[in-house]
Amino acid sequence: MLKKTDNKKEKLKALKKAEKNMKKRKNQTAKKIAIGIGITAVVLLAAGYGAVGYYYQDKFYPGTKINGNDCSGMQVQEIKDIIKKGAEEYSLTIQEKDNKTEVITGESIKVTYQDDKSLEKVKEKQNSWLWPIQIFQDQEYQVNAENFYDSESLTAAVNQLQCLQEGAGTPSQDAKLEDNGTAYVITPEVYGTQLDKEKTTAAIQKAVEERKTELSLEESDCYIKPAVLQSDEKLNQEMNHLNKLTGAQVSVNFQGTQEQISRDMLKSWLKQGEDGTYSFDESVVKPVVIGWSEKYNTYGKPRDFQTSGGYTVHLTTGDYGWRVWQDKTTEALMQVLNAGTGGVVEAVWLQQGQKYGGNDMNGTYVEISISEQRMWFYKNGTCLVDTPVVTGNPNKGNGTPAGGVWRLKDKKSPSVLVGRRPDGSIEYETPVTYWMPFNGGIGIHDLSKRSSYGGDIYLYNGSHGCINTPMDAVRTIYENIVVNNPVVVY
Predict the structure, then answer these.
(1) Could you say which DSSP state residue 188 is in?
(2) 354: left (phi over 0), alpha (psi -120 to 50) or beta
(3) Is pLDDT at 347 greater than 90 in this prediction?
(4) Each residue of 349-402: pLDDT tens digit?
(5) DSSP state of 162
(6) Contact by Cβ (8 Å): 408, 484
(7) Whether this model's pTM surpasses 0.70
(8) Phi and psi for 333 in degrees, rounded to 5?
(9) Residues with Cβ < 8 Å from 384, sequence gap 6 or more?
(10) Among 170, 174, 159, which residue's Cα sits nearest to residue 194?
C-alpha cells in the first residue's frame, strides 16, 4: 500500500514538471514571434520613411503654395516652365467705363521670365528627410518670379491706348450753383470718362509688374473726378447765403409809398469779393436810390398855390419841399440788404416839407405878392399878418426873385446886414431887429429908416432885394415862424 502511494506522488510530480516545461517553451516562442514582428515593422517604417524622403527630394510637399498657386508634388523646373509659359502668353485686359476694354499683350511689351533662383531657395527650405516634421507645417511662400518687360515698349503701348488719346472721353463737371428763377440750387456734379494719364500709366505699370491679367481703371481711381461735389460744405454755404440775400423781402418807404425791391434787382446788385463771399455793391445800389429820390423829391419842383386873393399861381422855382438824403438812405438800405433780414427801410430826408403831397404846405407860410407889394403870414391856416411891404428895386437890378417857394433858412434878432460890392468892399451895413433869410442874402426884416410901405415905392426906392416890413408885422412873423417854413413869392 505504501509503495502504491509513492508511485502516485511521483507521477504527479512528473506531470507538473512537464506542464512547466511546456509553458516555458510557449513563452519563448511568443517572444521570438514578437521580436520578429518588431523587426519587420522597423524595416517597413524605415523603408517608408526612405521612400517618402526620396520622393520629395526634388518635389514640393503637399499643400505647398507659391505666390498663391498650388505647387503640391511639383518640381522646381515644372513651376518655372509654367511661369515662363505664363510670361509668354501674358496679357493685361484694361477695363474702362461704358463697358469698353483694351488689351496690352506681353509680346507688345516684350515680357520674359527672369529666373532669379528664388524657387530653388524655397525648395532648399523643404528638407525631404525632415518630412515627418515639415510636411505638417505652413507651406505657403512668396517669391519674386519676376517677369521682365521693356519699359519703353510699355510706354509706347500705353500711349497707343484709345482711352488716352487727345479728346477721348467726356470731361467731368463740378457741382455748381444755378438760379432756377425762384432760388439758387446746386446742380449735382457729373462724372466724366476722361482719364488722368499719369494715374493711368502708373496703374498699368503696377498691374504689369504684379502680373495681373485684368485692371479696372475705375477701381484704380484713374478717372478725373469733379473737383466740387454737391455735398461740398463751401458750396452749400454759398447757396444758403445767396438765398438769404436774394430771398429777403425788402422795400423802401417814401412817405407812404413803398418801392419794392424784386429778387432780380437783388441779384443784379450782388458782387463777389476776392475771398469768394457775396455782398451788395453800393455803387450799383446808390444810382437806384438816386432814381427814387428824383421820383419822390418835391424840392424845387413846380407847384400850384392859391393866393390870398383867391386866384392860383403856378410856381416853378425855389428850394422848398421834400428832398431825399441819398447817402443816408443808401446806407440804411445797404445795412438791411447785407444782413439779409428783409424789412421796410424808411427813406432818410435831407429836407422835409410840412406835409407830403400837393404843394407840401399845411397852413403855415409867408405869402409875398410883388405886384401888390403885400405880405401875409398864416399860421395853421389863420392869417396873423397882412401888411404892405417894400421889395427889391427892379429898376436898379435888385428885383426880388419871384415865382417860387423857398424855405426859411434862419432867424436872428438882432442882426447887422452887410452888403458888398463885386470887388468885396462894403456897400452898406444896416442894423435890424429881426432878420429872416430865405433865398441866399434875401430875407424879411425891419428897416428903421423906412416910414412908408406898399404902392410903387419899390420901383424908385426899393430894397436891394429883401422884404422891408413894418416893425409890428415883422415881430409877429418872427415870433411865430420856424426855420424851414415856406415863403411864397409871386
Answers:
(1) P
(2) alpha
(3) yes
(4) 999 999 999 999 999 999 999 999 999 999 999 999 999 999 999 999 999 999
(5) G
(6) yes
(7) no
(8) -70, -40
(9) 377, 378, 476, 477, 480
(10) 170
As a whole number of angstroms, the distance between CA 276 and CA 14 comes to 128
Report the distance separating Cα 331 and Cα 25, nearest Å. 133
d(CA 438, CA 367) in angstroms, rounded, equals: 12
**Contacts of residue 263, Cβ cutoff 8 Å, sequence gap at least 6:** 182, 246, 247
Decide: residue 332, CB within 10 A, 0-12 exposed, 13-18 middle, 19+ buried.
middle
CA distances from 85 to 108, 113, 147, 151, 372 (A): 16, 9, 11, 21, 127
Contacts of 391 (CB under 8 A, 6+ apart): 368, 370, 373, 399, 400, 458, 462, 463, 465, 466, 467, 468
Residues forming beta bridges with residue 173, ordered by sequence position: 190
Q: Which three cell numbers stand for residue 358?
A: 400837393
Q: Under a CB-based contact definition with an 8 Å cutoff, are residues 278 and 237 in contact?
A: no
How far apart CA 211 and CA 90 sit, in angstroms, is 8
* Residue that is written with C-alpha cell 493711368 in the block: 200
> pLDDT digits over 441-459, tens only?
999 999 999 999 999 999 9
Which residues lie closer than 8 Å to 362 by C-beta, 6 or more apart?
Answer: 354, 355
**423 — phi, psi (to 5°)?**
-85, 0
Specify the DSSP element, H or E, that contains 372: none
